[in-house]
Design goal:
Length: 289
Amino acid sequence: MPTVWTTTRHRIDLSAPQVMGIVNVTPDSFSEAPTSLIVANGLQRAQTALDAGADILDVGAESTRPGASPVSEQEEWARLQPVLKAILSWGVPISVDTYKPAIMQRALDMGVDIINDVWALRWRAADGLNAEHVVATHPNCGVCLMHMNGEPATMHISPMEGEAVAPVVAFLAQRAQALRDQGVASSRVVLDPGIGFGKTVAQNFSLVTGQRVLLELGYPVLAGWSRKSSLGAVTGREVGSRTYASVAAACLAMQHGAQVLRVHDVAATKDAVAVYQAVVAGGDLAAGD
């Protein structure tokens, strides 16, 4: 399995878990918020994540939470472009969370490092441009392929049936093979089982131990448990009060082999990673007890 994630500008060391800070360039509550305010808030989130120690910044301008409505390509880019322009000089790998091929192309042309796609590069635009081709023809950009059952607007209504691990692994194996067939090196690819994307609470939790099966495909795994509704289901906490549960889930994901942790609460997760690494190292630290 690759221990380095090859991306446009950075070779990301996966020998230790990497914390990917979520940077949402989306309205907090009011759908009619002006784009300028959305951008300003997004930049602040990016700075906060960087200051907290994020290893990677994952920037998205369209919500993919259950029940979310899509935004136009024009609005998505109007939100993304000024944020990317500002943060590409920060010296940290930049990921863009999008499924639209034209947005991918523009972002990659600006120099972003990673495309993080909930549709696993299956989207084809009306003009024929397809996401798989955009990534395959770009030299060295990293990509994260995610499993999603259904689509964001309706996936919470009709979740998967039966057990989740085998179909998730089979789907991601097929998508990874499709990229290999296009000449994309395995070192560019990370897989995400898609926690919360069209799955029941039980299915989501089964995918933690199921990561071991996914890892057998030979690709690193990204875990995206942060603030997910399944954590609320078992703790009774509202979305803004799920930090502790999110960190616990991140620790379990690390224990079962996840190399990238996509999170809102960067500082808390970085502390958890430090403790996890100390335990793995057997407590052999220079600082003693």
